[in-house]
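Sequence design from tokenized structure. All designs in this work follow the same two-part layout: the structure record, then the generated sequence. An example of the structure record is given first.
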């Protein structure tokens, strides 16, 4: 009987310790749990683009779907901007544009209104492609650079330099890293020439000359940038099936998504 009493008091003590350590953990716990999905994203990609851009599209869908694990956010996937009027777009905290640009007048008007009213856009590679035939001046000023100029060929890895090391999108990245193979777009009037644009990463000058068939030998070559007049970021990655093969680049992509979403006019959802 005495032994049983002793055992009971030991159990009580363990329970008490357990409870007190749990409450200490609660008060010190540095995280915050979301009870519901924190935000809503629309990923738009085309199935009828250049095959390497479609390949990237399929992998991008998998990549962003994986990030919703645990119901962290809602990801809707569309294969064109058709039917997305302003009201539909306004339901999303961010549009992830993979390889396509709004094409018809109504699609462009809706997207323009969405962005001018605080919408979020994360654009990859061909989602920023435009040339003389595009005829959408608003998009050029939104993108913050001129039209497409040239690219290296074949697609290949390249050394990237981080230009802004204290930016929320780059602060946990190395100052330079080799990015997976890509068809790197160069632009007329590169983004770094505009006052309202922050270039976050560029192709290192050490890459020159770059290419085996089409060789680029000099020039400013921004790769990731943001136009501060909008809640947007452009990342030139997006060609072929290797784009999600590098942890550093994947981290950068997640940082970019988080940064765009965190600046929503509705407030920073990650602080809730
Ligand atoms: Zn490409």
């Amino acid at each position: 009987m005495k032994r049983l009493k002793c055992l009971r008091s030991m159990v009580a003590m363990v329970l008490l310790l357990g409870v007190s350590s749990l409450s200490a953990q609660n008060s010190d716990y540095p995280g915050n749990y979301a009870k519901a999905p924190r935000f809503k994203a629309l990923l738009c990609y085309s199935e009828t683009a250049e095959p390497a851009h479609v390949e990237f599209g399929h992998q991008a869908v998998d990549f962003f779907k994986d990030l919703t694990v645990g119901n962290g956010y809602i990801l809707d996937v569309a294969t064109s901007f058709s039917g997305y009027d302003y009201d539909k777009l306004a339901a999303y905290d961010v549009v992830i544009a993979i390889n396509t640009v709004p094409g018809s007048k109504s699609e462009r008007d809706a997207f323009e209104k969405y962005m001018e009213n605080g919408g979020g856009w994360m654009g990859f590679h061909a989602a920023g492609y435009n040339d003389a035939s595009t005829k959408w001046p608003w998009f050029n000023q939104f993108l913050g650079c001129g039209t497409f100029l040239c690219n290296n060929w074949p697609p290949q890895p390249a050394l990237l330099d981080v230009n802004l090391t204290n930016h929320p999108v780059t602060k946990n990245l190395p100052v330079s890293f080799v990015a997976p193979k890509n068809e790197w777009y160069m632009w007329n009037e590169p983004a770094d020439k505009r006052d309202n644009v922050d270039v976050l990463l560029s192709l290192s000058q050490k890459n020159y000359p770059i290419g085996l068939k089409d060789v680029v030998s000099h020039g400013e070559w921004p790769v990731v940038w943001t136009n501060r007049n909008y809640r947007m970021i452009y990342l030139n990655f997006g060609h072929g099936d290797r784009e999600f093969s590098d942890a550093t680049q994947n981290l950068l992509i997640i940082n970019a998504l988080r940064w765009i979403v965190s600046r929503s006019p509705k407030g920073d959802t990650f602080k809730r």
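The CA atoms of residues 115 and 230 lie 7 Å apart. We note this feature because it recurs in several other targets discussed in the main text.
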